[in-house]
Design a protein that fits this description.
This protein is mainly alpha-helical. It has a domain of 88 residues. α1 runs parallel beside α3 and α5 runs antiparallel to α6. The protein is elongated.
């Protein structure tokens, strides 16, 4: 057991050392190749670090759109939905006529969906999510993703309505009880 822990710790340290070595390199093309390799291997944290490091070198090149696309998905796959939503939004601002624009718009709304809390908690993000999904539907009426978007919207709306009903029913009972107590008190008093 101890040997397994030592070997796994060594492997983790060795893989981190590889990324650090690549990050120290002065060659942006090498860094981009390595970022692509990490992305394909689904090591999104390493890929993101390298993509982020090469962005200044490729900002005016044709590769920039693909780099930014993969940066957005790298954060998404790491379940960093706040940052990935921002990357998807910025992608749409930078490349509004891209063939990937519909996908990015959907992913932005989906990131909001992933951030929606349980119905018992503050529903500000849920309301934003419903708005974002409706905006997606309005902007892309012919999209293949509309069915899925509608399904998700319905689930959010029904969860919110169910919560309100669970809260309102007991409140109504309390209000009825309070008003009957007040009425008895008033009748005794006058």
């Amino acid at each position: 057991m101890r040997l397994v822990l030592i070997l796994s710790a060594f492997c983790v340290l060795a893989s981190c050392n590889g990324v650090n070595k690549v990050l120290k390199s002065k060659d942006p093309e090498y860094k981009l190749r390595m970022a692509e390799k990490y992305y394909v291997k689904k090591k999104y944290n390493y890929a993101y670090q390298l993509f982020e490091d090469v962005v200044p070198y490729y900002k005016t090149s044709k590769e920039f759109e693909d780099i930014y696309y993969k940066m957005a998905y790298s954060t998404f796959y790491q379940k960093d939905y706040t940052n990935s939503e921002n990357f998807f939004k910025t992608y749409l601002e930078l490349f509004p006529n891209s063939p990937r624009a519909e996908e990015m718009d959907y992913m932005r709304a989906y990131c909001f969906y992933k951030q929606s809390p349980k119905p018992e908690l503050d529903q500000t993000n849920t309301i934003k999510t419903i708005g974002m999904m409706q905006s997606f539907i309005n902007t892309h009426p012919g999209s293949a993703r509309i069915k899925e978007t509608n399904r998700r919207m319905r689930s959010l709306i029904s969860a919110t309505i169910n919560l309100k009903q669970r809260i309102i029913r007991p409140l109504n009972s309390i209000m009825i009880l309070a008003s009957s107590v007040l009425l008895r008190w008033l009748l005794r008093k006058y």
